[in-house]
TrEMBL record:
This is HAD superfamily hydrolase (TIGR01509 family)/HAD superfamily hydrolase (TIGR01549 family). GO terms for biological process: DNA repair. It comes from the Bacteria. SUPFAM superfamilies: HAD-like. Keywords: Hydrolase. PANTHER family: BLL8046 PROTEIN, PHOSPHOGLYCOLATE PHOSPHATASE. One of its GO terms (molecular function) is phosphoglycolate phosphatase activity.
Length: 229
């Protein structure tokens, strides 16, 4: 019998595997306040998941305040410092550890692709129990463009040695789903980052689950099968 290769899973990090979206929101608000830029929290939340540089451009465009390279770098550093101060409060989302452990035990390839840089992603990965020396992790530092561009997911699939067309992107934001579509991968949305089911589906998600635990309960419905099944 001919066997098809297993589906590879490419995970976003914040809001997908760890409950960190609102820590990012508050960190960005603190960074913006330090530069005298006042923006509503909801506006910041709607941009979490896209690349930091692009998010700053959008937020500052909405505020009507000009940004130069020096200010952008100050904002990036201020956000990273504020986020890392909050990182001790971040926890894995329900079922996250069990999900990736099940994939590993089932010999199903998986990787992490995050718009964050390693300076902020590193402590969270350690808390999650993910060793970048053993699990492919692609951060903003390693690609030219982050979400909604497809570069992160293309690089993650390449690290796994699997075609992107045989990969499924799992994310909590519309930016993940848009990047998945541009990469020619299927997209699965999770509600754990604050976007609605309708928003995720309109952005390209073909299935939407509550969180990693809910995805694990239905993993066989989205291509997650043990090698012997």
């Amino acid at each position: 019998m001919l066997g098809s290769p297993p589906t590879a899973f490419l995970f976003d990090l914040d809001g997908t595997l760890v409950d960190s979206v609102y820590e990012h929101v508050l960190a960005w608000q603190e960074a913006l306040d330090s530069e005298g830029i006042s923006l509503s929290v909801w506006r910041i939340h709607r941009r979490i998941g896209m690349s930091g540089g692009l998010m700053m451009n959008v937020l500052l465009r909405e505020s009507g305040i000009a940004i130069d390279e020096a200010r952008a770098e100050r904002l990036r550093r201020a956000h990273a410092a504020a986020y890392n101060r909050r990182s001790g409060m971040i926890r894995p989302l329900p079922g996250a550890r069990e999900l990736v452990a099940w994939l590993t035990a089932s010999s199903i390839p998986w990787a992490i692709a995050t718009s964050g840089r390693m300076e902020t992603a590193g402590p969270v990965l350690e808390m999650l129990g993910v060793d970048p020396a053993r699990v492919p992790v692609v951060t903003r530092d390693l690609v030219r463009y982050a979400k909604p561009d497809p570069d992160l997911f293309l690089a993650a699939a390449d690290k796994l040695g699997v075609p992107i067309e045989q990969s499924t992107v799992v994310g909590d934001a519309v930016w993940d789903m848009l990047a998945a579509r541009r990469a020619r991968a299927l997209g699965i949305g999770l509600l754990s980052g604050g976007y609605s089911e309708d928003e995720l589906e309109r952005a390209g998600a073909y299935r939407v689950f509550e969180d990693p635990a809910d995805l694990l309960r239905h993993i066989d419905e989205v291509g997650g099968r043990r090698a012997s099944m």
